[in-house]
Automatic annotation (TrEMBL):
<dbReference type="InterPro" id="IPR000515">
    <property type="entry name" value="MetI-like"/>
</dbReference>
<feature type="transmembrane region" description="Helical">
    <location>
        <begin position="234"/>
        <end position="256"/>
    </location>
</feature>
<feature type="transmembrane region" description="Helical">
    <location>
        <begin position="134"/>
        <end position="157"/>
    </location>
</feature>
<keyword id="KW-0732">Signal</keyword>
<dbReference type="InterPro" id="IPR035906">
    <property type="entry name" value="MetI-like_sf"/>
</dbReference>
<protein>
    <submittedName>
        <fullName>ABC transporter permease</fullName>
    </submittedName>
</protein>
<keyword id="KW-0813">Transport</keyword>
<keyword id="KW-0472">Membrane</keyword>
<dbReference type="InterPro" id="IPR045621">
    <property type="entry name" value="BPD_transp_1_N"/>
</dbReference>
<keyword id="KW-1133">Transmembrane helix</keyword>
<feature type="transmembrane region" description="Helical">
    <location>
        <begin position="101"/>
        <end position="122"/>
    </location>
</feature>
<feature type="transmembrane region" description="Helical">
    <location>
        <begin position="284"/>
        <end position="306"/>
    </location>
</feature>
<dbReference type="Pfam" id="PF00528">
    <property type="entry name" value="BPD_transp_1"/>
</dbReference>
<dbReference type="GO" id="GO:0005886">
    <property type="term" value="C:plasma membrane"/>
</dbReference>
<keyword id="KW-0812">Transmembrane</keyword>
<dbReference type="GO" id="GO:0071916">
    <property type="term" value="F:dipeptide transmembrane transporter activity"/>
</dbReference>
<keyword id="KW-1003">Cell membrane</keyword>
Length: 314
Protein backbone atom coordinates (compact mmCIF):
# COMPACT_ATOMS: atom_id res chain seq x y z
CA UNK A 1 0.00 0.00 0.00
CA UNK A 2 2.88 2.39 0.79
CA UNK A 3 4.40 1.84 -2.67
CA UNK A 4 0.98 2.41 -4.25
CA UNK A 5 0.58 5.73 -2.38
CA UNK A 6 4.10 6.85 -3.28
CA UNK A 7 3.62 6.18 -7.00
CA UNK A 8 0.25 7.93 -7.03
CA UNK A 9 1.68 10.92 -5.16
CA UNK A 10 4.58 11.28 -7.61
CA UNK A 11 2.14 11.02 -10.50
CA UNK A 12 0.00 13.70 -8.85
CA UNK A 13 2.94 16.11 -8.52
CA UNK A 14 4.08 15.54 -12.12
CA UNK A 15 0.55 16.07 -13.44
CA UNK A 16 0.17 19.33 -11.52
CA UNK A 17 3.49 20.66 -12.82
CA UNK A 18 2.65 19.73 -16.42
CA UNK A 19 -0.80 21.30 -16.07
CA UNK A 20 0.65 24.57 -14.79
CA UNK A 21 2.98 24.78 -17.80
CA UNK A 22 0.20 24.07 -20.28
CA UNK A 23 -2.22 26.55 -18.68
CA UNK A 24 0.36 29.35 -18.49
CA UNK A 25 1.48 28.81 -22.08
CA UNK A 26 -2.08 28.59 -23.41
CA UNK A 27 -3.24 31.77 -21.67
CA UNK A 28 -0.15 33.75 -22.69
CA UNK A 29 -0.52 33.02 -26.41
CA UNK A 30 -4.13 34.25 -26.49
CA UNK A 31 -4.19 37.40 -28.65
CA UNK A 32 -4.89 40.76 -27.05
CA UNK A 33 -3.07 43.02 -24.63
CA UNK A 34 -4.60 43.40 -21.14
CA UNK A 35 -3.08 46.86 -20.72
CA UNK A 36 -4.53 48.07 -24.01
CA UNK A 37 -7.89 46.60 -23.11
CA UNK A 38 -7.92 48.28 -19.69
CA UNK A 39 -6.93 51.73 -21.03
CA UNK A 40 -9.00 51.66 -24.20
CA UNK A 41 -8.20 51.91 -27.89
CA UNK A 42 -7.22 55.60 -27.76
CA UNK A 43 -4.67 55.30 -24.94
CA UNK A 44 -1.23 56.79 -25.52
CA UNK A 45 1.52 54.23 -26.21
CA UNK A 46 3.68 55.45 -23.30
CA UNK A 47 0.70 55.06 -20.94
CA UNK A 48 0.12 51.52 -22.16
CA UNK A 49 3.83 50.74 -21.76
CA UNK A 50 3.81 52.13 -18.22
CA UNK A 51 0.80 50.00 -17.28
CA UNK A 52 2.38 46.89 -18.82
CA UNK A 53 5.47 47.53 -16.70
CA UNK A 54 3.31 48.02 -13.60
CA UNK A 55 1.47 44.76 -14.25
CA UNK A 56 4.73 42.89 -14.88
CA UNK A 57 3.79 42.08 -18.48
CA UNK A 58 7.19 43.23 -19.80
CA UNK A 59 9.10 40.60 -17.83
CA UNK A 60 10.39 37.47 -19.60
CA UNK A 61 7.84 34.65 -19.87
CA UNK A 62 10.01 32.21 -17.96
CA UNK A 63 10.38 34.59 -15.02
CA UNK A 64 6.67 35.36 -15.04
CA UNK A 65 5.86 31.64 -14.98
CA UNK A 66 8.20 30.97 -12.05
CA UNK A 67 6.85 33.99 -10.18
CA UNK A 68 3.28 32.82 -10.77
CA UNK A 69 4.08 29.23 -9.78
CA UNK A 70 5.85 30.34 -6.59
CA UNK A 71 2.83 32.44 -5.71
CA UNK A 72 0.51 29.48 -6.24
CA UNK A 73 2.59 27.31 -3.92
CA UNK A 74 2.33 30.01 -1.24
CA UNK A 75 -1.39 30.60 -1.78
CA UNK A 76 -0.74 34.01 -3.39
CA UNK A 77 -2.50 34.13 -6.77
CA UNK A 78 -1.63 37.75 -7.48
CA UNK A 79 -3.77 40.85 -7.95
CA UNK A 80 -6.62 41.04 -10.44
CA UNK A 81 -6.04 43.59 -13.21
CA UNK A 82 -9.74 44.43 -13.33
CA UNK A 83 -10.96 44.22 -9.74
CA UNK A 84 -7.73 45.48 -8.11
CA UNK A 85 -8.13 42.88 -5.36
CA UNK A 86 -6.27 39.62 -4.55
CA UNK A 87 -7.28 36.83 -6.91
CA UNK A 88 -7.38 34.38 -4.01
CA UNK A 89 -10.13 36.41 -2.39
CA UNK A 90 -12.14 36.55 -5.61
CA UNK A 91 -11.84 32.79 -6.13
CA UNK A 92 -12.71 32.01 -2.51
CA UNK A 93 -15.78 34.23 -2.73
CA UNK A 94 -16.99 32.54 -5.90
CA UNK A 95 -16.15 29.03 -4.66
CA UNK A 96 -18.45 29.64 -1.71
CA UNK A 97 -21.25 29.32 -4.25
CA UNK A 98 -19.83 26.98 -6.92
CA UNK A 99 -18.61 24.25 -4.54
CA UNK A 100 -21.96 23.83 -2.72
CA UNK A 101 -23.74 23.93 -6.09
CA UNK A 102 -21.49 21.18 -7.48
CA UNK A 103 -21.85 19.14 -4.29
CA UNK A 104 -25.64 19.45 -4.30
CA UNK A 105 -25.80 18.50 -7.98
CA UNK A 106 -23.55 15.48 -7.35
CA UNK A 107 -25.75 14.31 -4.46
CA UNK A 108 -28.88 14.68 -6.60
CA UNK A 109 -27.36 12.88 -9.59
CA UNK A 110 -26.18 9.99 -7.40
CA UNK A 111 -29.52 9.75 -5.60
CA UNK A 112 -31.29 9.52 -8.97
CA UNK A 113 -28.81 7.26 -10.76
CA UNK A 114 -28.15 4.52 -8.20
CA UNK A 115 -31.73 3.28 -7.82
CA UNK A 116 -32.37 3.78 -11.54
CA UNK A 117 -29.30 1.72 -12.49
CA UNK A 118 -30.20 -1.02 -10.00
CA UNK A 119 -33.79 -1.23 -11.25
CA UNK A 120 -32.68 -1.33 -14.89
CA UNK A 121 -30.15 -4.09 -14.22
CA UNK A 122 -32.59 -6.11 -12.10
CA UNK A 123 -35.33 -5.79 -14.74
CA UNK A 124 -33.13 -6.21 -17.78
CA UNK A 125 -35.15 -6.30 -20.99
CA UNK A 126 -38.41 -5.48 -19.24
CA UNK A 127 -40.49 -2.32 -19.14
CA UNK A 128 -38.64 -0.73 -16.24
CA UNK A 129 -35.31 -1.27 -17.98
CA UNK A 130 -36.58 0.21 -21.24
CA UNK A 131 -38.01 3.22 -19.38
CA UNK A 132 -34.76 3.90 -17.50
CA UNK A 133 -32.54 3.52 -20.57
CA UNK A 134 -34.89 5.69 -22.65
CA UNK A 135 -34.97 8.47 -20.08
CA UNK A 136 -31.20 8.18 -19.65
CA UNK A 137 -30.71 8.57 -23.41
CA UNK A 138 -32.83 11.70 -23.39
CA UNK A 139 -30.91 13.05 -20.40
CA UNK A 140 -27.60 12.52 -22.17
CA UNK A 141 -28.78 14.02 -25.47
CA UNK A 142 -30.44 17.17 -24.12
CA UNK A 143 -28.04 19.95 -22.96
CA UNK A 144 -28.27 21.10 -19.37
CA UNK A 145 -29.07 24.71 -20.28
CA UNK A 146 -32.28 23.48 -21.96
CA UNK A 147 -33.22 21.71 -18.74
CA UNK A 148 -32.42 24.97 -16.93
CA UNK A 149 -34.76 27.00 -19.13
CA UNK A 150 -37.56 24.44 -18.80
CA UNK A 151 -37.18 24.38 -15.02
CA UNK A 152 -37.33 28.18 -14.88
CA UNK A 153 -40.40 28.23 -17.11
CA UNK A 154 -42.23 25.68 -14.96
CA UNK A 155 -41.11 26.13 -11.35
CA UNK A 156 -40.32 29.85 -11.37
CA UNK A 157 -42.57 31.50 -13.95
CA UNK A 158 -45.62 29.24 -14.10
CA UNK A 159 -45.90 27.74 -10.62
CA UNK A 160 -43.77 30.37 -8.82
CA UNK A 161 -42.37 27.82 -6.38
CA UNK A 162 -38.68 28.68 -6.69
CA UNK A 163 -36.67 31.77 -7.72
CA UNK A 164 -35.72 32.14 -11.37
CA UNK A 165 -32.22 33.40 -10.64
CA UNK A 166 -29.94 35.42 -8.43
CA UNK A 167 -28.27 34.49 -5.18
CA UNK A 168 -29.08 36.19 -1.84
CA UNK A 169 -25.87 35.04 -0.12
CA UNK A 170 -25.25 32.61 2.72
CA UNK A 171 -26.41 35.16 5.31
CA UNK A 172 -29.85 33.74 4.53
CA UNK A 173 -29.25 29.96 4.32
CA UNK A 174 -32.83 28.94 3.50
CA UNK A 175 -33.10 31.46 0.67
CA UNK A 176 -29.63 30.53 -0.60
CA UNK A 177 -30.53 26.83 -0.78
CA UNK A 178 -33.80 27.65 -2.56
CA UNK A 179 -31.82 29.65 -5.12
CA UNK A 180 -29.53 26.66 -5.80
CA UNK A 181 -32.25 24.02 -6.22
CA UNK A 182 -33.08 24.66 -9.88
CA UNK A 183 -29.43 25.11 -10.99
CA UNK A 184 -28.47 21.92 -9.14
CA UNK A 185 -31.26 19.95 -10.80
CA UNK A 186 -30.31 21.30 -14.23
CA UNK A 187 -26.71 20.22 -13.64
CA UNK A 188 -27.65 16.87 -12.07
CA UNK A 189 -30.05 15.47 -14.69
CA UNK A 190 -27.51 14.84 -17.51
CA UNK A 191 -24.97 13.48 -15.03
CA UNK A 192 -27.56 11.18 -13.47
CA UNK A 193 -28.38 9.81 -16.92
CA UNK A 194 -24.71 9.02 -17.61
CA UNK A 195 -24.17 7.43 -14.22
CA UNK A 196 -27.34 5.31 -14.43
CA UNK A 197 -26.32 3.84 -17.80
CA UNK A 198 -22.79 3.06 -16.64
CA UNK A 199 -24.05 1.45 -13.43
CA UNK A 200 -26.56 -0.64 -15.37
CA UNK A 201 -23.88 -1.90 -17.78
CA UNK A 202 -21.42 -2.63 -14.96
CA UNK A 203 -24.05 -4.56 -12.98
CA UNK A 204 -25.11 -6.61 -16.00
CA UNK A 205 -21.48 -7.48 -16.70
CA UNK A 206 -20.89 -8.41 -13.05
CA UNK A 207 -24.00 -10.60 -12.97
CA UNK A 208 -22.51 -12.70 -15.79
CA UNK A 209 -19.40 -13.60 -13.77
CA UNK A 210 -18.73 -17.08 -12.37
CA UNK A 211 -18.88 -16.04 -8.71
CA UNK A 212 -22.44 -14.80 -9.23
CA UNK A 213 -23.41 -18.10 -10.86
CA UNK A 214 -21.91 -19.93 -7.89
CA UNK A 215 -23.83 -17.76 -5.43
CA UNK A 216 -27.05 -18.34 -7.37
CA UNK A 217 -26.39 -22.09 -7.49
CA UNK A 218 -26.13 -22.07 -3.68
CA UNK A 219 -29.62 -20.64 -3.45
CA UNK A 220 -29.01 -16.89 -3.33
CA UNK A 221 -31.76 -14.90 -5.00
CA UNK A 222 -31.06 -12.71 -8.02
CA UNK A 223 -31.82 -9.55 -6.05
CA UNK A 224 -29.50 -10.54 -3.20
CA UNK A 225 -26.70 -11.46 -5.63
CA UNK A 226 -27.17 -8.12 -7.35
CA UNK A 227 -27.04 -5.99 -4.20
CA UNK A 228 -24.58 -8.00 -2.08
CA UNK A 229 -21.99 -9.08 -4.64
CA UNK A 230 -22.42 -7.52 -8.08
CA UNK A 231 -22.89 -3.97 -6.80
CA UNK A 232 -19.54 -3.92 -4.99
CA UNK A 233 -17.68 -5.04 -8.10
CA UNK A 234 -19.57 -2.57 -10.29
CA UNK A 235 -18.44 0.35 -8.15
CA UNK A 236 -15.06 0.86 -9.87
CA UNK A 237 -16.45 2.38 -13.09
CA UNK A 238 -19.06 4.22 -11.01
CA UNK A 239 -16.34 5.78 -8.84
CA UNK A 240 -14.53 6.89 -11.98
CA UNK A 241 -17.62 8.65 -13.27
CA UNK A 242 -18.39 10.19 -9.88
CA UNK A 243 -14.90 11.68 -9.68
CA UNK A 244 -15.14 13.06 -13.19
CA UNK A 245 -18.64 14.37 -12.54
CA UNK A 246 -17.65 16.46 -9.53
CA UNK A 247 -14.83 18.03 -11.50
CA UNK A 248 -17.15 18.66 -14.45
CA UNK A 249 -19.86 20.12 -12.24
CA UNK A 250 -17.35 22.46 -10.62
CA UNK A 251 -15.74 23.55 -13.87
CA UNK A 252 -18.59 23.17 -16.32
CA UNK A 253 -21.26 25.30 -14.66
CA UNK A 254 -20.40 28.45 -16.65
CA UNK A 255 -23.56 28.29 -18.76
CA UNK A 256 -25.82 27.35 -15.85
CA UNK A 257 -24.40 30.12 -13.67
CA UNK A 258 -25.07 32.62 -16.44
CA UNK A 259 -28.61 31.30 -17.02
CA UNK A 260 -29.44 31.74 -13.33
CA UNK A 261 -27.27 34.86 -12.79
CA UNK A 262 -25.22 33.12 -10.12
CA UNK A 263 -21.93 34.81 -9.09
CA UNK A 264 -19.93 31.58 -9.14
CA UNK A 265 -16.48 30.55 -10.26
CA UNK A 266 -17.59 29.71 -13.80
CA UNK A 267 -19.06 33.15 -14.29
CA UNK A 268 -15.88 34.71 -12.87
CA UNK A 269 -13.78 32.87 -15.48
CA UNK A 270 -16.13 33.96 -18.26
CA UNK A 271 -15.94 37.60 -17.14
CA UNK A 272 -12.15 37.45 -16.74
CA UNK A 273 -11.75 36.07 -20.28
CA UNK A 274 -13.85 38.87 -21.78
CA UNK A 275 -11.89 41.46 -19.75
CA UNK A 276 -8.48 39.92 -20.57
CA UNK A 277 -7.74 39.55 -16.85
CA UNK A 278 -5.03 36.94 -17.41
CA UNK A 279 -4.01 36.42 -13.81
CA UNK A 280 -7.60 35.57 -12.81
CA UNK A 281 -8.03 33.19 -15.75
CA UNK A 282 -4.72 31.42 -15.11
CA UNK A 283 -5.30 31.02 -11.38
CA UNK A 284 -8.95 29.98 -11.62
CA UNK A 285 -8.32 27.47 -14.40
CA UNK A 286 -5.32 26.08 -12.51
CA UNK A 287 -7.50 25.65 -9.44
CA UNK A 288 -10.05 23.71 -11.48
CA UNK A 289 -7.32 21.52 -12.96
CA UNK A 290 -5.99 20.87 -9.45
CA UNK A 291 -9.50 19.85 -8.42
CA UNK A 292 -9.72 17.43 -11.37
CA UNK A 293 -6.30 15.87 -10.66
CA UNK A 294 -6.85 15.63 -6.91
CA UNK A 295 -10.27 14.05 -7.41
CA UNK A 296 -8.66 11.53 -9.78
CA UNK A 297 -6.03 10.83 -7.10
CA UNK A 298 -8.72 10.26 -4.47
CA UNK A 299 -10.60 8.05 -6.94
CA UNK A 300 -7.47 5.90 -7.39
CA UNK A 301 -7.29 5.49 -3.62
CA UNK A 302 -10.96 4.54 -3.57
CA UNK A 303 -10.20 1.90 -6.23
CA UNK A 304 -7.61 0.39 -3.93
CA UNK A 305 -10.13 0.22 -1.10
CA UNK A 306 -12.78 -1.39 -3.29
CA UNK A 307 -10.41 -3.79 -5.11
CA UNK A 308 -7.45 -4.96 -2.94
CA UNK A 309 -5.74 -6.40 -6.05
CA UNK A 310 -4.79 -2.86 -7.11
CA UNK A 311 -2.68 -2.43 -3.96
CA UNK A 312 -0.39 -5.30 -4.89
CA UNK A 313 2.89 -4.49 -6.68
CA UNK A 314 2.98 -5.38 -10.35
Amino acid sequence: MARFLLLRTLSLAASLLAASLVIFAAIEVVPGDPASYMLGMNAAPDTVAALRDQLGLNEPLGWRYLHWLAGLLQGDFGISYTYKTPVSGLIAERLALSAPLAGLALILSTALALPAGLIAAARRGKGADLAVTGLAQIGIAVPNFWFAMMLVALFALRWQLLPAGGFPGWAHPAAALRALILPAIALALPQAAILARILRSALIEAMAQDYIRTARAKGLSRRAALTRHALRNALIPVLTVLGMQFSFLLAGAIIIENVFYLPGLGRLIFQAITQRDLIVVESAVMLLVVAVIVVSFVTDLAYALVDPRLRRPA
